[in-house]
Amino acid sequence: MISKNKEFADLHIHTDYSDGLFSPKTVVQRALELKLGAIAITDHDNIAGVQRAIEAARGTDLEIIPGIEISAADGDKEIHILGYFIDHTNIDLVESLGEMRRERIKRMERILALLSEKNISIPEDKVFGVKKENTVGRLHLARVMVEEKVVKHTKEAFDRYIGDKSSCCVKHKHLDYKDAVKMITSARGVAVLAHPGATKVDERIGDYVKAGVAGLEVYHSKHRNAEILRYQTIAEQYGLLVTGGSDCHGKPRGRILMGEVRVSREIVEKLRAASGRF
Fold first, then answer.
1. Is 142 within 8 Å of 249 (Cβ atoms)?
2. Domains of the chain (ranges, CATH numbers)
3. Fewer beta carbons within 10 angstroms: which end of the chain, N or C?
């Protein structure tokens, strides 16, 4: 049962400015219904939804923590770095994310061209949407492929056409993880390794810490109890901040995850304090 205590925060939420289904306003409304004290907007490679959420929450008791989730590369491995309490107006950050967005658009255009060669025509306007600031990814395309009845579900889209080993896949050019961490810390944010249980990079955590990662997402909707205990131990070993969140993307499978994973106000304050060091 979801607590009514306003001292709790969900620190991993996506909006429709990346691959979430809810607008920032809807995300805020849901958080207010759950009586959460704070939420972090952590869209993929995008900060455009942060200010919208701040505006939607104005006049309420809900705190909006400016955040981001950056897709990064560690050799051939993709990892995600969360950033908390970033300055979402930082010019260098805005410009860097703009370049990343343009690269994503080019990649998506190449994927659509490959699908077209298979006589699969997908309306570009549906994939890219109407918001110029949004981050477009394969999940957007997969959802449209379902709408267009090309596939029955998003998993089929990835398995048959756009997954990593599929015929229409175009590899995404990720930032090196060191550059991703620097991007966050240069914007006065706190860098946190996202959902380590999913990325399976435990042996690399020490190197991420050397690069400037200051926290570990111990609590996550896909982490089982054994993983939570494991990452609590690793966080203690390296002196890392412990964070957590639902990784809510809206209601893609009939269930809204927001608030199902939450952390205390104490963790929020530790992140806030840490952001002042950068």
1. no
2. 97-162 (1.10.150)
3. N
| Helix residue ranges per DSSP H, the chain | 24-33, 48-57, 91-117, 124-128, 138-147, 154-157, 177-186, 196-199, 205-211, 225-238, 265-275
pTM: 0.89
Q: In sequence order, what DSSP letters do the residues of 8-43 get, joined into one string?
A: EEEEEE--TTTT-SS-HHHHHHHHHHTT-SEEEE--
Question: 3-state DSSP helix/strand/coil percent for the chain, to nearest 5?
Answer: 45, 20, 40
Decide: 34 and 5 in contact? Cβ < 8 Å: no
CA distances from 70 to 45, 97, 115, 179 (A): 5, 9, 27, 10
Cβ atoms of 135 and 20 closer than 8 Å: no
**Which two structure tokens, joined as six digits, stand for 242?**
């412990």
Kindly report, residue by residue over 11-70, the tens digit of the pLDDT: 999 999 998 889 999 999 999 999 999 999 999 999 999 999 999 999 999 999 999 999
Question: CA-to-CA distance for 122 and 114, rounded, in angstroms?
Answer: 11
Burial of 210: CB neighbours in 10 Å, binned 0-12, 13-18, 19+: exposed
Strands 175-176 and 190-193: unpaired
Tokens at residue 149, please? 């009845």
